[in-house]
Batch of 4 targets.
Target 1
Amino acid sequence: MRHRPAGEIGWARRVRTVADAVRFIDAVGYCLLFPTERLPLPSLYYVVAKRVPVTWDRYTEKIWRWKDELGRKRLAFYAKYFKARGTFISLEMLPHLLAMRESAAGPGEHETFYAAGRISKDACVIWQSLEKHGPLATLELRHASKMESKAGNARFKRALLELQCLLVVVHFGTEQETAAWTSGRFELTSRAFPRQVSEAHHIAAAAAHAAVAQKYLQWHPNAPPGLLARLFRWSRDEAAAACSCRAGGGVS
């Protein structure tokens, strides 16, 4: 029997279509686009290709297209979240992760986040640009944020990553801006997924931690609290509390 990498799960059927991908993401709650040894999480690539390591092949091309379609059609949330890696979050789990991160932000809250030291000035500028102009492709967003130079591009990438790690900004499809690769489009989560942002306001932090932990433990029932603490950037006490009601059963 072929060895299954750490974090991957025993998914019975190979994922072949967008609908299959949505079912998988909904079942696991959150997963990576591509697997990585540093993160013990399931990945979409593994259940499509049923192998590692990742190579650029027909499976890679397929899920690369899917990440754009899933975001554009609002079938799943996609951003660089776990350690800046491409991450899918199901619509059911998104409110819990937003509540966990205390980032269910509405219009005009960029100044509040900046004043509290939660985002940089550059991230604040990008947030304002999206709020003013709506969803923008990468080059358009750099231009709107006045970060067109080489140094500005480095600042732009860092700031955009900040906003994705807070789940404030979501990947929202692609746009053909140049003759080369298509550019990612980005939108504020509050506009792309307003219902989930609204729901997050009614979820207490402890309840969000518990829901996120139980979803992980459903598929990895033997995971120790320390692993979840590292994965979700929790304190030991937060991880212990979140794991206190372990999910029963599940597939390992």
Target 2
Amino acid sequence: MAEEAKAVVSVPDGQKDAFAELIHAERNPPPRPGFGGPALERRPIAEQVASRIMAMIKSGNLRPGDRLPTERQMGIAFGISRPPLREALKALTLMGVLESRQGGRYTVTDLSPSRLVAPFNTMLSVGDYDVNEHFEARLVVDLDLVRLCTLRATQEERQRIMKHAVDGNAFYDDPVAFRLLDIEFHQSLNDAAGNRLLSAVAQGLYDIGLDVRRVASAMPGNIEKSVSQHIEVAEAVLAGDVAGACAAYRRHLEHVRDTTIEAMDSSHATKD
């Protein structure tokens, strides 16, 4: 087996091949002082392999565009059979970290924030939806974006945010048009924050539970309330008032959460 592995590792000089790095990582695991190595071994094999590949990407041993070895080569490197290896590769593909190319070889993706958040959003959307957990996460991410936006936004960006907020007054009786404007309002806040990764996470969180929020937006009085809260946020951002912007945005998210719960209860009552 050792001779077979040695033969596989041999590649022409200058050829980009991750297999040598896989072998090196497998034979020279980094020290784990204080973490109790054996505990890691109790994890599923597929999870350990996925973590190893992710560690190589984080360290720079694997970069966007790099092509992974064949499944046979990786099986030799990790000393495992193909089923757990394929499970690990499939998980990393669903996460947007790898993509499968023709011929069965996997390639590291561009790792852009939007690509990485998409499967995260899908995973949460199809699972058991917990509205309180969802909006707790939005509070953490969105409030920091609002803080950064208030600190960093250019005057042009502040004016755009205010325009999106005020324009909502024209859509009290048009929930579909308001939802489109709502997306633009929140995205304008995220864009002005100047952090693409946080913005991508926020967009993923925003997209969760949209079916329920469509129902909520059609309920009497909800659009008017949202528009007035958008304007409060925009006014604070325009004034550079970080505390005021965050407080107004928190109130807005609490309103959206409460009306989402109301819409869910109404939907359940209708089905019953």
Target 3
Amino acid sequence: MKATDGHHSGSAGDSVLSAGAVPVIRAENLRKVFRSGDADLTVLAGVNLSVNEGELVAIVGPSGSGKSTLLHILAALDTPTSGAIYFAGYSHQALTESEVSDFRNRRVGFVWQRHHLLPDFSAVENVAMPLLLRGIPAAEAMQIARQWLDEVGLAARAHHPAGELSGGEQQRVAFARALAGEPALLLADEPTGDLDEGNAEAIFELMQRLHLSHRLTSILATHNLALARRCHRVLQLEHGILEASGISGQPGSQRKGENR
């Protein structure tokens, strides 16, 4: 894998980093263009983003603005038309196919809006799945999965089919599954979008607690501005451009110079 020193100048998404710091995840001039009939649809138009260890960053924007596309590219679930992604100073472009698969399984946890659980499998089997794919023995994978379900408050529901759980419970399982492999980076794409206000609040509080207790670096895409304000920074994605939103995050957490 090819490393980069993480330094370049003049892009709108750069942050002022402490001396020698390397961002956990950095996007440089990302463009994503889809072909729509006879025309090109530009979803990302030169996005720059730099997120340091321990940050919880919210990305807001209207439906169709490209928030999901950006998170998918950061997670190596999709590829940009042009531009580069660096994780801990290493370029995604320099990774082999097997290294990309390893990155997705070990380095990043991803939570979708619609959880994507296997409905006929139990909650504990769903959480254990990425561990089994990693080659962890079944008994050990199930033990780890049970521990994570206990951490998200679902120990008593471990053996219930995922399809029989409530929406809030399913998202708790999704967070347990995303973090069972102990990734450094958590990406959550509208995890509260399908939930009522009470469940949305509970899921966000869960995400905050997990972020702190497991020392994660987290990026949340959300429509919920009230929740976004409780993150360290809030960025706006609209018309393919990512910039400061004008919405204040938690006091003292905004890093000077980011996305100006």
Target 4
Amino acid sequence: MTLGNGMHRSALAAMIFIAGVCAAQAQDPATRPQGASNVSTALVKDLAPTGKLRAAINLGNMVLAQKDPATGALGGVTVDLARELARRLNLPLELVPFDAAGKVFEALKAGAWDIAFLAIEPVRAAEIAFTAPYVIIEGVYMVPKDSALRAVADVDREGVRIAVNKGSAYDLFLTRTLKHAQLVRGENGIELFLRDRLEAAAGVKQPLVEYAKTNPAVRIMDGRFMEIRQAMGTPKQRYQGREDAPRYLHAFVEEMKATGFVAKALKRSNQPDAAVAPPAD
């Protein structure tokens, strides 16, 4: 099967699921909010108990979200997905910006958001119901230009200190997988790497590549140390075993991938290097 055929089949399956949910819910008109694309009142309340859809937007990842320095307007694939979901649910949208993924996860306990866009990680998945990924990005290392570290496998050795953004997907991943190297956490991994003259900085490929273009004293190491699977998520504790809302979000994301919505959003936000995730199994 070609990827294109897989995408089309995934889109059809997603639309069939959403249509099935809507058809079942449409049997009782009293359960439908007016104009809400036949999504039930119960499902809408599960997803947005305050009456508006609060979407956490991580501005710390330039692949997913950007802020216009002149107007302050938010854009990017996550903003576009949030807007489309709110439109389908017939809900007002509130964008809740954060400057780091770790802060998005911390805000979960305070009930600050209804949906979020985060990388799938076991620590997060214990508390967040994730969809399948919609975008795949890479985690890479940046090192001093004259560093003796040449391959990704060279980094995990005694005496190597790696700067990371605290609570990021790559922080969580490296915490689980490194055997010898030491992680040094901070609000800004690049600044930490430079200030303390550390042996490496870990991060999302695109912003590290952009930074390296401006600083001839550093280079990006070939290869990746992880695949970062970006997904939409919603708080698990809200549903108490009810699966309609997480399933709806899963089907929504599959449709957005397969119909080209995600690819077009990435293109509009000038992120051509980010890959649309393949259809979920």
